[in-house]
Backbone:
């Protein structure tokens, strides 16, 4: 697996906080690194940025490169349990355990780490907020977890997690930006469901959902608002 890491100058003198950025469908470890404009703000705030790939590559599964929204470039950051995919597609373990143990060799403070992403993840750019109810999520979860394994689907759905797992008394501060001209806004992202889940589970006012007029789903959109997101993470990490 390949990944990119940005190290600010503060790492010359000790361990600093880090943000993982989970890129979206079709991306490699390079898209966010090359197109988001995140490194200037990260240098200002003294944050490490870690950019993982979005799936295993060239693992010889039949059809792995056939679709842009499933298989290569579309691991959905979950551990597949269906026999065809489960040997290699363990992206949840990779992000949560394996990659942190690899980057532990770098000057990163493991107690001050946060996570952000685009589209295929939640927090904070154009997230697929309720994947169990949209075509991208249903295709990915059927293929990786099994069509009948709906309970496992819920473990990877922000709306479901707000009702089942997140402490109702927790004080959340979630920043989400999405463009009003995003092609995927209505059919795939389902952000009104996220707003509803925040309200219904005692987190009213704890989601900052900003609809950015005229922006689409691209990295031009991300690069325009990345500074706010780096500041948002720095507020808690520093
Ligand atoms: N090819 C597809 C759309 C693919 C797309 O928009 N990918 C986005 C992420 S979408 C959700 O995860 C992306 O980041 N692409 C790479 C880039 O550098 O822009 C289609 O045509 O519909």
Residues:
């Amino acid at each position: 697996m390949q990944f990119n890491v940005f190290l600010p100058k503060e790492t010359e003198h000790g361990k600093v906080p880090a943000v993982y950025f989970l890129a979206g469908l079709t991306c490699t470890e390079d898209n966010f690194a090359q197109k988001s404009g995140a490194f200037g703000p990260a240098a200002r705030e003294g944050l490490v940025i870690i950019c993982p790939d979005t799936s295993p590559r060239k693992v010889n599964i039949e059809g792995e490169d056939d679709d842009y929204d499933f298989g290569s470039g579309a691991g959905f950051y979950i551990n597949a349990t269906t026999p065809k995919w489960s040997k290699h597609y363990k992206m949840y373990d990779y992000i949560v355990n394996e990659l942190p143990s690899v980057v532990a060799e770098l000057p990163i403070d493991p107690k001050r780490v946060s996570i952000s992403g685009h589209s295929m993840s939640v927090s904070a750019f154009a997230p697929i907020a309720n994947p169990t109810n949209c075509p991208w999520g249903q295709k990915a979860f059927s293929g990786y977890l099994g069509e009948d394994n709906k309970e496992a689907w819920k473990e990877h759905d922000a709306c479901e997690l707000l009702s089942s797992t997140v402490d109702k008394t927790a004080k959340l501060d979630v920043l989400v930006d999405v463009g009003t001209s995003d092609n995927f806004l209505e059919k795939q992202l389902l952000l009104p469901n996220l707003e509803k889940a925040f309200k219904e589970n005692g987190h009213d006012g704890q989601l900052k959902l900003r609809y950015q007029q005229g922006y689409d789903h691209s990295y031009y959109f991300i690069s325009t608002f990345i500074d706010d997101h780096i500041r948002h993470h720095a507020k808690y990490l520093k």
